[in-house]
From TrEMBL:
Organism: Solanum commersonii (Commerson's wild potato)
Protein name: Sialyltransferase-like protein 1
Example GO biological process: pollen tube growth
Keywords, comma-separated and alphabetical: Glycoprotein, Glycosyltransferase, Golgi apparatus, Membrane, Signal-anchor, Transferase, Transmembrane, Transmembrane helix
Intracellular or extracellular location(s): Golgi apparatus membrane
Record-linked InterPro entries: Glyco_trans_29 (IPR001675), GT29-like_sf (IPR038578), SIA1/STLP5 (IPR044782)
Family: Belongs to the glycosyltransferase 29 family.
Main location: Golgi
Keyword Transmembrane: yes
CDD domains: GT29
Gene3D superfamilies: Glycosyl transferase family 29 (3.90.1480.20)
Length: 469
């Protein structure tokens, strides 16, 4: 059918991108002839153009028909093949899904690389240091407060204390390989169970069941689970006695949740960045953000990423509507070719695990530096581009692993011997070597987002290093 066209296209595409890089070199040389210098801007554009052509090749190889069309060194359009069924009607926007999606790759690299160094769990030190952290931000995380601000901080603490650790309970680079398991019905077409369980940590979503019935498809290992408000009711049934699984609430805390938490021994926290991202719908992105903030490699399973979907199905329940398969599929493919995630799905199940066309760590680091330099140049900002370049607010906190643990003022007997302390008071020495190294390189600083997806506004918390403590 379309096979021959597919295999010929990449060659042509490669040729075109080589030509593009060449013409950029020419322009760069010409302009440096006139200005008398080979400016770093030209070099950065070259690096990014090279990255783009790599991305284009990666999409051609892995995109199951998707193609990448380069606009300039930052912008790219991902296109579905002509004739793709776009009869999916989006209720929200009252349109049929488009077949083309434009992305700013420079922004995407900056955003997703930043997650690798980020803390994504809400902590007391964050609320204490963020401007109006308690008054303003904390109030947004509490349902049933009856006010839009915390006029009475004690009252807000009462709502949050059960889920609020003093310091980040998890750390960048804490795990090497993580599996993020979505809920898609396509999980039933494969037997990824053992492969999923072989990861250092497994992240699941909401009410996705884990039991013998589905074990060969989704595995049995459970480490993290992102949940939304409303899940509190049947959470105890879902957990089914699994005390270790960490719950991370990605919306707001409310009375029902707190009542439920007091009855279980699981660690429970609030996710810190809650604003939904443009460009990718659904809850999957939060799980990927959480995973990236702790793991080197993020493998995703059970996301609807293969062509041919006409409805949104879940592996444990009947199909329902309300998803944007094409938009999500294009964005996940972009993320795979930016080296953020690795996609596992039925149509890719039989392939050898070959990631050679995904950009290397070194290539991503180079592209990241180039994108950052260009961005700062465009904003007219000079000066250092170190790891704290985006720190807007600084705060100071006590040494690693000290301070009150979550729930300490409202410990029910069940929670007193709960498993929160496994993470919250873990000695620095028992952290994975890469995580310790990162902590030292970051000089003991934890990075938090201030608002949504704004790249430039970080809250940076300095913890004394061992020797200074
Ligand atoms: C603040 O909230 C606490 C706890 O609910 C309550 O005991 C206290 O009276 C409140 N303070 C004021 C000034 O309303
Ligand atoms: C919340 O926890 C902190 C730290 O353990 C404690 O200092 C504070 O008094 C607690 N607040 C309430 C209202 O229980
Ligand atoms: C709970 O776990 C047990 C095994 O530990 C299993 O037999 C049972 O089916 C599970 N229940 C649910 C509702 O998944
Ligand atoms: C496209 O999807 C619609 C809605 O699910 C379906 O009715 C139609 O048969 C599909 N068309 C093709 C060509 O696959
Ligand atoms: C992330 O952390 C590493 C140290 O592990 C540092 O070299 C790098 O500059 C940081 N990157 C960002 C985007 O913060």
């Amino acid at each position: 059918m379309t096979r021959p066209r597919l295999s010929r296209k990449p060659a042509l595409v490669r040729l075109l991108s080589v030509a593009a890089v060449f013409s950029i070199i020419l322009i760069a040389i010409q302009s440096s002839f006139f200005t008398g210098s080979w400016t770093p801007v030209n070099l950065d554009i070259l690096i990014l153009s090279h990255f783009q052509s790599n991305l284009q090749q990666c999409v051609a190889n892995r995109g199951l028909g998707l193609t990448a069309h380069i606009i300039d060194h930052c912008n790219v359009i991902l296109k579905f093949p002509q004739g793709t069924n776009s009869t999916w009607y989006n209720e929200q926007f009252k349109i049929f899904e488009p077949l083309e999606y434009k992305y700013d790759v420079c922004e995407a690299i900056l955003l997703w690389e930043q997650y690798r160094n980020m803390t994504t769990v809400l902590t007391r030190e964050y609320l204490d240091s963020r401007p109006d952290g308690w008054f303003d931000y904390a109030a947004k995380r509490i349902a049933q407060l009856g006010a839009d601000k915390c006029y009475n901080q004690t009252l807000c603490e009462e709502h949050l204390n059960l889920t609020l650790p003093a310091k980040p309970p998890f750390h960048p680079r804490q795990f090497r390989r993580c599996a993020v398991v979505g809920n898609s019905g396509d999980l039933l077409k494969t037997q990824f169970g053992e492969e999923i369980d072989s990861h250092d940590a497994v992240i699941r979503d909401n009410e996705a069941p884990v039991n013998e019935k589905y074990a060969k498809h989704v595995g049995l290992k459970r480490d993290f689970r992102l949940v939304v408000r409303g899940a509190a009711g049947n959470m105890i049934k879902i957990l089914n006695g699994s005390d270790d699984e960490v719950l991370i609430i990605k919306s707001v805390i409310h009375r029902d949740f707190n009542a439920m938490i007091k009855k279980i021994r699981n660690p429970v926290y609030l996710f810190q960045g809650i604003v939904l991202r443009r460009g990718a719908k659904g809850t999957g992105m939060k799980s990927i953000e959480l995973a990236l903030s702790m793991c080197d490699i993020v493998d995703i399973y059970g996301f609807t990423v293969d062509p041919g979907y006409t409805e949104w199905t879940r592996y444990f329940s009947t199909p329902r509507k309300g998803h944007n398969p094409l938009q999500g599929r294009a964005y996940y493919q972009l993320l795979e070719c930016l080296g953020v995630i690795r996609i596992h799905s039925p149509m890719r199940a039989k392939r050898k695990q070959d990631w050679s066309d995904v950009p290397s760590r070194e290539m991503i680091n180079n592209a990241h530096r180039a994108a950052l330099r260009l961005k700062k140049k465009q904003a007219g900002e000079e000066g250092g581009l170190g790891q704290f370049v985006n720190c807007k607010v600084w705060g100071k906190s006590g040494p690693y692993g000290t301070g009150p643990v979550s729930g300490s003022t409202d410990m029910t007997d069940t929670r007193k011997d709960s498993n929160y302390n496994r993470w919250e008071i873990m000695p620095f020495e028992s952290l994975r070597m890469e995580a310790r190294k990162h902590y030292m390189q970051m000089e003991g600083v934890s990075l938090y987002k201030m608002d949504g997806n704004k790249l430039d506004d970080l809250v940076c918390m300095k913890h004394p290093l061992k020797s200074e403590a």
